[in-house]
Amino acid sequence: MNIVKHTSNIPQQYINAVCIFLLLFISLELFSHETAGSFNSYRIPERAIEFPDTDKYLTIVADLHTHSVFSDGHVWPNIRVSEALRDGLDAIAITEHLEYQPHISDIPHKDRNTAYRIAAEAAKNTNLIVISGSEITRENPIGHMNAIFIEDSNKLISLDNSKIIEAAKLVEERKDEVAVHGGMDAANHLALASLWPVANAVNKANEQGGFVFWNHPTYKVNNGIATPSKKHIEFIKNGTLHGIEVVNENIFSEEAFAIALDYNLTIIGTSDVHNLIDWDYPSHQNQHRPVTLILAEERTKPAMKAALMNGRTVVWYKNLLIGKENNIQPLLNAMMRIDSARYQDNSEILEVTIKNNSDTKIQMTNLSDYSFTSNHDIIEIPAQSAINLNVKTKEQLSSISLEFKILSALVRPKIHPTIILRSKIASD
Length: 428
Ligand SMILES: [Zn+2]
Ligand SMILES: [Zn+2]
Description:
alpha+beta, TIM Barrel, Immunoglobulin-like, 3 domains, 12-stranded mixed beta sheet, 4-stranded antiparallel beta sheet, binds zinc ion
């Protein structure tokens, strides 16, 4: 037969070598299946979120608010890790609700560090930094707060059994909410845990060196306007509340941004993801999770915490960058540059190539006196792209300076930063 004829021409040593190689390959494949190391290959280029480092700092891409089945999320914590790797994040925080435990009957876990431990284990052989955290959960007006970089989540919750009757009364009063809270066990747990004063939990987080921020300050607020309560102001004044979510999921709050500036709180934006990230932010529709860009000296947890404590963040939400001027400005300087500037033939029309070295689309308006041959004053540079502007300079210059207002960035509510791009002009 044909096949026999063929193989008979191949030396036996060669066949043996191929067989050994195939066996080795198959066994390696079997044993390498689903190992933590394989997560490294999960990065999906079109999903990966990329911003350049600034002159002074590394730009760390972080999502500081995520959930799993260990509170009210719907996935195991290792999925948060693989999603973060797919999105090219540098860091995620695991922040389960301490008090709100709708899966408590099916997934009882005495140790509230479990979700973090599972996620940290899953991320072991990857570049992802997993940050421990917890969501301290109370009714409004104090609402929810995340404590991250904590050592032991168990210390942030206390169930005082002497208050069981008081808690049972609270559950009875609101029995129509029991099903929403995950049944009787979960409702009793939530009521009892919520009776522990919130200041105790915040203090315990601070004793561990935690960074604490106020979550979704417009959640269940009828007029949608974030307003700090007396307790928030007390925590801010005594230095135990350090940041505020200006963006949570799909909501941006200008009032929260104003509160951050007024009280010098760190600006945070998070996904607060409960489902699969791709369900909430479908990449095929060009969506991305909100992230906090942390301007840190190093790619380490202590450096990230120091940056957060010092307010060095910019939030990326939809197509908008939100941050304090002293953080936005160096980021814009790193993101944008004139790549080339030269006169067309011997004309007085300067062809300027402006590059956007980031994943956000830049929308800007011209502030200089020059006009352009093929653009009006509102200009867009798509993510990771460049555009050509033909500038009418009226005479041949040796250098150019163009000023733009960046409409897709905010340094205060309704106030946009400006940037001046300078370049020498190449002479032929
Ligand atoms: Zn919350
Ligand atoms: Zn949450």
